[in-house]
């Protein structure tokens, strides 16, 4: 019994993660089976909101955590080695950033995202349909404020 308690205590995060994934899958399957018609985009947005907030919180933790670990690792080294590593890190970061920017520009020029989307949207919609699409509810404003 003590082994099980020790195991559960040491692996609680993993266990809770698996339980969360399984319960989320079960709730999703139950909600999908209860509705016999297709969900509206607004209902889908309401269900996606908690996951979107969770992912934004994770993204906001990544950069500070990375910077803290790099600073801690470099600070633990001797001074002569730290200068070389710091210089290499800065050079590596600058190089990868420049490569990412160049790749992004090339892809935007090649793919041309958004071209033709306006013509497709304007082609088959009436003024009434456009008014319904632009309808913003209080709930939408509140969710945007929380985001």
TrEMBL record:
Coiled-coil portions? none
PROSITE patterns, alphabetized: PROKAR_LIPOPROTEIN
Q: Which GO terms describe its cellular component?
A: plasma membrane
Regions crossing the membrane: 12-33, 53-78, 90-111
Origin: domain of life:
Eukaryota
Principal localisation = membrane
Name its cellular compartments: Membrane
Provide the alphabetized UniProt keywords: Membrane, Symport, Transmembrane, Transmembrane helix, Transport
Topology within the bilayer: Multi-pass membrane protein
Q: A single GO molecular function, which one?
A: glutamate:sodium symporter activity
The family line of this record is: Belongs to the dicarboxylate/amino acid:cation symporter (DAACS) (TC 2.A.23) family.
Q: What is this protein called?
A: Amino acid transporter
Q: What is the lineage of its organism?
A: Eukaryota, Metazoa, Ecdysozoa, Arthropoda, Hexapoda
